Structures are given as C-alpha cells and as structure tokens.
UniProtKB/TrEMBL annotation, chain B:
Co-factor(s): thiamine diphosphate
Enzyme Commission code(s) on record: 1.2.4.-
GO molecular function, a single term: oxidoreductase activity
Entry-linked InterPro entries: THDP-binding, Transketo_C/PFOR_II, Transketolase-like_Pyr-bd, Transketolase_C
Lineage: Bacteria, Bacillati, Actinomycetota, Actinomycetes, Micrococcales
Alphabetic keyword roster: Oxidoreductase, Thiamine pyrophosphate
Span of the signal peptide: none
Keyword Oxidoreductase: yes
Organism: Arthrobacter burdickii
Protein name listed in UniProt: Alpha-ketoacid dehydrogenase subunit beta
Domain annotation Transketolase-like pyrimidine-binding: ranges: 25-200
Listed CDD domains: TPP_PYR_E1-PDHc-beta_like (cd07036)
Length: 395, 355
C-alpha cells in the first residue's frame, strides 16, 4: 500500500514523528480561524491572508441582501404567503461565503436552511421560494446554476455531492463541490458515509457544517462529545478546520483555500463554522422552551453584518453612498420577492402526472384522465350553479 | 400489443433439471454479459458496490468487469449501502449511468432512504430538469437455503414508491434484455434478480442476444408482460422466482386435463394491465403466484386490479398463492413457506369449476 504520496492522507508512516506531523496537519486549528473580530478589527492569522477589499465589499453586499431576504421571508410567513421559513438570520456570512467562493462550473449542495446561499449563487428568488410557498418541491433547474435541490432529509445530499464530485473527476473536469449541512446532521449515518467515501475516493468536495448550536431543540453536546465537529475529519483522513461562522472574511479565506485545494487535486476537507441561529428553527418552533433570551442576546454583538460594516467603513471601503446603494439593492430584491409572492401562482393539476417517469405509464395516463374528467365535471356543475344563481337574481 | 410466447425456462425446483445439451447459458452469465455489453456500448455506464471488483460480486455477476474496463468503471466501495446509492445519485446528476449492486435484498435497507427520498423523486422534485438513470441490482428472494436476511422479497416496498421502475426477470433471455433496457432507461430501475434462478440455464447464445438488442430487434420488455405458456381454462399470473413454479403447476394441470395459461410479468412497475386482463377475460379464472408475504403485497395489487377490470368476465374470485405473512423462514423451513406446485394446483381447484 502506498503512503500519503497518493494524496489520500494515508495514516501509514515510517517514523512516529512523521505520523504525528501528518496527524496534526489534519487537525483543526486550536481556535476557530478569525480574521475580523466582533469589533471590526483585523486579527492576524499566519495561514490565512485577509481577502482583498473588492471581494469583501461585494460579499458584504450579499450579506446585506441576505439579511433582507430572511426578514422578508419571515414577514411573508406571518402573512400566510409562505408555508414555512427556516431562517438563516445570524448565519448569513456562512450562506454568502458558501456561494461566493465557488466558480461557475462548481456545484453547491444546500439544505432547507440555505435559501440565502442559493439566491446568492444567482438563482431567481421566486423560483427558490416556490418550494416553501408550496407550488412544487423544487422550483429551479439544478443544472442552470449548478445548485442541487435544497435537501430536507438530513445529510443525504452530502452523498450526492460526493457523487457529482467523483463523476467530475472521472470526466476530467476541474469542478469542485461544496456541500452544506447543520451540526445535527453530523450525527446521521449518511454524514459518515459521505465523509468516508469522499476521503477514500479522494473527491474534490468541501463539506461545510454550519454549527448553529441547535438541531431544533437539541444542543450540540447531545449530538457529540468530540472536541469539535471539525475534529471528525481526521478520522476519515482529511483535514478539518474551525472558523468563526460570523466572520465573513475568515469564511471566505478558509472556504476559498479548501476549494482551491480541492481543485488542485488535494481532495476533500471538512470545515466547521461556528455560528448561532438567532431565530427559531422555523416559524413553527417555540425556541423559548430550550434556550433563554440571554443566550440569544449574547450573540447580538457578534453579528456578521455589524462587524464587517465596521471593518469596511474603517478602511473607507464603504461610504455612506455605498451603504445606501447596497440598502437600495437589498430593498429591491425584497420588493421582488414580496411582489412575486403576493400574486397566487397558477397551478396546473395536469402537471401532477408529468414528472414521475420519462414516459407516463398506462396507470398514470388513466389517473390523469380520471382527474381531468373529475375537474371538468366540477367546472360544469359550478357553471350550472352560477347560471341558476344568475337566474334567481333575475327573478 | 403483440405477445411472444416464449419457451418455459428449464429447471424448476420441483422437477429434475434437464441436462443441457449444447452451449447453454445461465441466468448469471446473461446478467454478466448484459453489464459488459452495456459498458462496452456506453462509456458512461459504471458498476460499483461491495465486492464487485476483483471478486466479481458474491454471485459473480460482475466477474471480469474490472479486468476488462478498469477500476474506474467497475469498483469496490466502502461497506455502506446508503453511500453507494447516494453517490450514484450524484454521479447520475453529473452525466453517468451508474449500475449499483446491493449484495443481498435485506442489506439494501440502509439505502432505502436514499432510494425513496431521492432516487425515486429527483425527476419530480426538479420538474423533469434532473433525471437519474440508475440501476439498483438486488439479488433477491429465497429458495437457496440462505440464512436470515438473505432471502427477502422486497418488491412491494419499491413498487409502492412512484418514480421507480421495478423489474424481476424469470428467464435467461429476459435477464439479458431487461438489464440492457434498465441500463438504457432514463428512469431509475430497481432490478430484482431471483437468486434461485442464477444457475438456471437456457439454450441461448449471448452474442446473438447482444446483436439482437443492439440492432433494435428485441421487443421492448419494460412494461410488457408475456404469456409464458398459453392456456384456455385459467390464468396464473406470476413474476421472478415464482414463474418456474407456476409453469410446473400448469404442466401438472395439463396432465389432469386443465389448460392453464401462465403470465410472466417481468415488469412489476410499470404494470401491463392489458396482457393480464386480456388473458383473464379469456379464461375467466385467475390465480396470482408470488413468493413475498401476501398481505399488502404486489399480489394483492394484482388481484385488486383484475377484480376492478375483469369483474364481469370472472367465473370465480381471483385467488393468491403467496408466502405466509411471516419473516422469511430458516432454510429447513423454507419449503413450507414457498408457493409450491401443489399449493397452486389446490388454488386452481378452488376456482369454482362446474364439473
Ligand atoms: C433524516 C431526518 N430526520 C429528521 C428530520 C427533521 N429535522 C428537520 S431539521 C432538524 C434539525 C437539524 O438540525 P441541524 O442539522 O443542526 O441543522 P439546522 O436546522 O440547525 O440548520 C430535524 C431533526 C429531517 N429533516 N431529516
């Protein structure tokens, strides 16, 4: 068996010293990587240079828009326009960074909570919301922007990401895949299988865990007692890294490096972003049952927008004028979403039978015809009823 | 719809196996040839699973594929069924046609979540934008003296899931042609391989089958049942491992003067109502024969469909001969469980004959 030269992070080594350095190369940094602290000051990290101002500024724009999208979506649930919304309020830096570090040819595998990441990647928000609005289980073409459908069954999409990455490798493409999941999802069997497959097949996949401390009501220490989620990587033979999940600059640097590494043939890696879910799990959840207002308050000063704003303003990269422009842009996205969701989408019952098989089976053809007849009868009865009523009014 | 009446497969568990005269091929060889021919014809076809590489699969269905096509085309994965199926989803999303092997029926259950939630639904979720040409091969059902968890009949789980095509061949020819069709299908296919038929033989030339398939000469089999034995008095409806038993029962009934038609479904989903109903309307009597437990089964579904559609042609209620509603029994007890020729003949006797 070959050693680590095969690039698979093999644990075999001739001397104990080599073994140790190889192990520690896979271990996450002792403290989460941070490049801009909550006060908005640059904190130095030997391994990760601060991304350049242009990139930070444009990503900051997405951050502002992301917050507005979360707020707008929550409002639409209250108005009954969306069935449900799993908000990423407070986690927007992870959302934006995940989308921004990818090239056009790369793939993103998001979960139900990653709506902002999907929109940041460029997909029409109205198409994205068709899932939560209830028009269809997924509203966009995954191939168009290389974004998989948002996955609801936990951790299952991580394996699909490995498959896309493996196929890309076999086809000689330089595609990188970034797959997202939550802290709770790391307890699922599919999480383990995906890590292991990615490492064994040396697939260009970056796994991003958004550790927001809760899986619905269950805190992280009920999911794992590992030193960190990033530590899990070493067990699969891939590097793990911890990053401040509310620090846009650090996320861009760490995820960017992992994507570059994967593209250069360096294989998979696991990144744990430590953040906090400021809102309830969804609008249906009562978060006061499992956490206190104080807990939530503690995270307010660590807000990802606040600190990046201070940092950018300090460098005069962000001016009053610039802020207004970003705010206007975010408003206009929110207005588009509001406008689009305030009109009922037409739903065509005939579509029910359309996308089950490439060709409808005779059973589906029969059932489609049955529904068509039923609806035609209903419509006839309704128009007859309306006729009776009109006559009644005349009399 | 035209039907071809094909020769009943030789070798049923209830008759002594005829000695093959000339170059006969086994069911297993037909599957192996179908895989090799499909991989030869289309470079995007890949085969992976547990022990499918150097070993060639525990039933040797993938024998020689790694040597011939390389490790990138036929490879072993870590031991993880959800991983295998989940990775196949991603590979299919990215231009490949993965064929995966689940080592045994009951070991496919860890992957059930991936099959039901993703494999079956991707086309629907994406309104047709993403389709998954995946074949999930499962050595299935009993009759081989296997230990626990090696003999399940799991077809109802898959058949109940819209979006999946579910196939169960019973003859060497169908094994070859159905697997080629499955691999070519734009939809995901659960391909159930009756383990006890792996070693059954037919006098077929596999190279000839390949030419027939590739010339487009083979009649389509997905969604098309076949009359495996023609008859006029009653219809036995069966698929997969139970077809040889049904044929043996029909042969025995013929000696008693009853002409029994046997239908081999081959394709459970889509289901060929036309062939089944045409036969039952003609004979007026039907028995469904299947190895799985009968409650809430594919057999139940067939009975319901036939009663709904052929009620006025029926001279008797449609009956079922199935496994009992118990976990698949241990080897020494399985012969009590499996539908037998006698049990089928008893059911035929119960079809309210006038004589
Ligand atoms: C396989 C599976 N089990 C249970 C659920 C129900 N469920 C939805 S979200 C959730 C919590 C997930 O927590 P986490 O992975 O930390 O992600 P977060 O919601 O915090 O983003 C649960 C239990 C599910 N979606 N899938």
């Amino acid at each position: 068996m070959s050693t680590a030269t095969n690039g698979r992070g093999s644990m075999e080594a001739s001397a104990g010293g080599t073994q140790q350095s190889m192990d520690s190369a896979l271990l996450p940094s002792a403290k989460p990587v941070q490049l801009v602290d909550p006060e908005g000051c640059h904190t130095h990290d030997d391994r990760y240079p601060l991304p350049d101002g242009e990139l930070l500024l444009s990503a900051y724009g997405h951050l502002v828009a992301g917050r507005r999208i979360n707020d707008q979506a929550n409002a639409l649930v209250r108005q009954g326009r969306l069935a449900v919304y799993p908000s990423s309020h407070g986690q927007e830096a992870c959302q934006v960074a995940a989308a921004v570090v990818l090239a056009g040819e790369d793939w993103l595998f998001p979960t139900y909570r990653d709506t902002v990441a999907v929109i940041t990647r460029g997909i029409d928000p109205l198409q994205v919301f068709s899932l939560l609005r209830g028009d269809w289980h997924g509203g966009y073409d995954p191939h168009e922007h290389r974004v998989a459908p948002q996955a609801t069954p936990l951790a299952t999409q991580l394996l699909h990401a490995v498959g896309v990455g493996h196929a890309a490798k076999l086809r000689g493409e330089s595609t990188v895949v970034l797959a997202m999941c939550g802290d709770g999802a790391t307890s699922e069997g599919d999480f383990h299988e995906a890590m292991n497959f990615a490492a064994v097949f040396h697939v260009p996949v970056v796994f991003l865990i958004q550790n927001n401390e809760f899986a619905i009501s269950v805190p992280l220490d009920h999911q794992t007692v590992a030193p960190s989620l990033a530590h899990k990587a070493i067990g699969y033979g891939m590097p793990g890294e911890r990053v401040d999940g509310n620090d846009l600059a650090a996320l861009l640097a760490v995820l960017g490096a992992a994507v570059d590494r994967a593209r250069d043939g360096g294989g998979p890696s696991l990144i744990e972003a430590h953040t906090y879910r400021m809102h309830a799990h969804t609008n249906a959840d009562d978060a006061t049952r499992y956490r206190s207002a104080d807990d939530v308050e503690r995270w307010v000063p660590r807000d990802p927008i606040l600190r990046m704003r201070t940092y950018l303003r300090g460098l005069t990269l962000l001016t009053d004028e610039g802020e207004h422009a970003l705010s206007d842009a975010a408003d206009s996205i929110a207005a588009t979403i509001r406008g689009g969701l305030n009109t009922e989408a037409e739903v065509d019952p005939a579509q029910l039978f359309e996308y089950v098989y490439a060709e409808k089976t005779s059973q589906l053809r029969e059932q489609a015809e049955q529904l068509r007849e039923e609806l035609a009868r209903d419509a006839e009865a309704e128009s007859a009823g309306a006729g009776d009523q009109a006559e009644g009014e005349l009399r | 719809m035209t039907q071809t009446t094909e020769a009943p497969p030789a070798g049923s568990p209830h008759r002594s196996r005829p000695v093959p005269v000339k170059a006969a091929s086994t069911f297993a060889q037909a599957l192996n040839a179908a895989l090799a021919d499909a991989m030869e014809a289309d470079p995007t076809v890949l085969m992976f699973g547990e022990d499918v590489g150097v070993l060639g699969g525990v039933f040797r269905i993938t024998d020689g594929l790694t040597a011939r096509f390389g490790e990138e085309r036929c490879f072993d994965t870590p031991l993880a069924e959800a991983g295998i199926v989940g990775m196949a989803v991603g590979m299919a999303m990215n231009g490949m046609r993965p064929v995966v092997e689940m080592q045994f029926d009951a070991f496919a259950y860890p992957a059930f979540e991936q099959v039901v939630s993703h494999v079956a639904k991707m086309r629907n979720r994406t309104r047709g934008a993403v389709h998954l040409p995946i074949v999930i091969r499962i050595p299935y059902a009993g009759g081989i003296g296997g230990v626990e968890h090696h003999c399940d009949s799991s077809e109802a789980y898959y058949a109940h899931t819209p979006g999946l095509t579910v196939l169960a061949p019973a003859t060497v020819r169908d094994a070859y042609f159905l697997l080629r069709e499955a691999i070519a299908s734009p939809d995901p296919v659960v391909f159930l391989e009756p383990k006890k038929l792996y070693w059954s033989r037919e006098d077929v030339d596999l190279a000839e089958l390949r030419r027939t398939f590739e010339d487009g000469q083979a009649p389509r089999r997905i969604g098309r049942a076949v009359v495996a034995r023609a008859g006029t008095d009653a219809t036995l409806i069966s698929y997969g491992p139970s077809v040889p038993t049904a044929l043996a029962a029909a042969a025995a009934a013929a000696e008693e003067g009853r002409s029994i038609e046997v239908i081999d479904l081959r394709s459970i989903v889509p289901f060929d109502d036309e062939t089944v109903c045409e036969s039952v309307r003609r004979t007026g009597r039907a028995v469904v024969v299947a190895e799985a437990p009968g409650f809430a089964s594919v057999a139940s579904e067939i009975v319901a469909r036939v009663q709904e559609r052929c009620f006025h042609s029926l001279a008797a209620p449609v009956l079922r001969v199935t496994g009992f509603d118990i976990p698949y029994p241990s080897p020494k007890l399985e012969h009590f469980y499996l539908p037998s020729v006698d049990r089928i003949l008893d059911a035929v006797d119960d079809l309210q004959w006038e004589d």
